[in-house]
Design a protein that fits this description.
Layout (H helix, E strand, L loop, with lengths): L14 E6 L26 H8 L4 E7 L5 H12 L4 E7 L7 H9 L4 E5 L8 H6 L4 H13 L3 E4 L4 H13 L5 E3 L15 H9 L4 E5 L5 E2 L2 E2 L3 H15 L4 E3 L12 H12 L4 H16 L16
Parallel strand pairs: 1-2, 2-3, 3-4, 4-5, 5-6, 6-7, 7-10
Antiparallel strand pairs: 8-9
Helix pairs in contact: 6-7, 8-9
């Protein structure tokens, strides 16, 4: 049972977790992820459970990222998030290569809680191939133009060299599209001259509409899970240098992160990694940059300090 005592000393207030997942294995028809074999994850992950875990750490809001490829599940997620005011935004899962993309986008874009869509290296998708190779690439790229015109962001998933090449090309063709790169710490990127990702990350970091979500920080190093902040610092420092303090944002990846560390340990690790930053930089990382990346709107007065809500 997590302590209910707030842990706020190194955090600004409010704090937004920009990457969590919600799902319910008990739903009729089940869920495509996680599977019943993933015993750590296969239990309901719903807003009340998240709030009980996260609120003691000063987290007053979250962005929910859809973990299912089924378009109908987007609507379950929107309704679930809408019922809990701590959930300020939903990133739906939508494939730009799908012929029915535009119909789904129209419905999603009309919902104030939807802040973007996610695509990338998940569910056997290939963003680069879909957008820049083959007969349907022009139509897929036009759909991302429509996404940008609707004021919604594009999240990517599980970055590698090909995905970053796709993002670079998308940004050149659709400069007004806001793009959020998920799970960059999991790439263990460094600023060494031998890292092929580094030049692309530096180029992307110069784009004012591209953000690095520093989610999935805990990981196994040489097969062993590390709780030592020093093992993660080179990667985090390199990413912060590439994207600067205005374009990095916090995400826990809960409950997927429970496979490595619990929420309290994850927050402590990230807090330790950012303890040496300025108060302004921490405030941007844990809150303000998420507003710029997703244009989410507060649902509770404490979520932005102004008292304005929707």
């Amino acid at each position: 049972m997590p302590s209910r005592a707030p842990v706020r000393s190194s955090f600004p207030s409010p704090v937004l977790d920009a990457h969590i997942h919600l799902f319910d294995p008990a739903r009729p028809g089940g869920i495509p992820w996680p599977s019943a074999q993933e015993t750590v994850l296969y239990r309901p992950a719903l807003p009340d459970r998240f709030a009980a875990i996260a609120e003691p750490h000063g987290v007053v809001a979250a962005i929910v990222v859809e973990a299912s490829p089924l378009p109908a599940d987007n609507h379950w997620l929107l309704e679930t998030a809408r019922q809990h005011p701590r959930m300020v935004g939903v990133v739906a899962n939508l494939d730009p290569a799908a012929p029915d993309f535009s119909a789904h986008l129209d419905r999603l874009g009309a919902d104030p809680i939807c802040v973007g869509i996610r695509s990338g290296n998940l569910w056997q998708r290939d963003l680069f191939g879909d957008l820049f190779c083959g007969q349907t690439s022009a139509a897929s790229l036009a759909r991302l133009h429509a996404l940008a015109d609707a004021g919604l962001a594009l999240d990517t998933a599980n970055p590698d060299l090909r995905l970053l090449q796709a993002v670079t090309a998308i940004a050149e063709r659709i400069p007004h599209l806001r793009i959020v790169l998920d799970h960059l710490p999991a790439t263990a990127v460094t600023d060494s001259g031998n890292d092929p990702l580094w030049p692309l990350l530096c180029e992307l970091g110069q784009n004012p509409n591209i953000f690095a979500k520093l989610s999935e920080v805990p990981r196994r190093i040489q097969g062993v899970l590390s709780r030592n902040p020093g093992d993660y610092r080179p990667t985090l420092d390199a990413l912060c240098a590439a994207f600067d303090e205005d374009h990095v944002l916090f995400g826990s990846d809960w409950p997927n992160s429970d496979q490595w560390l619990g929420y309290t340990e994850t927050m402590q690790l990230v807090r330790d990694l950012f303890a040496a930053k300025t108060a302004v930089a921490r405030e941007k990382f844990f809150w303000r940059n998420s507003m710029r990346a997703y244009c989410w709107r507060p649902r509770l007065p404490e979520q932005d300090g102004s008292g304005a809500t929707w």
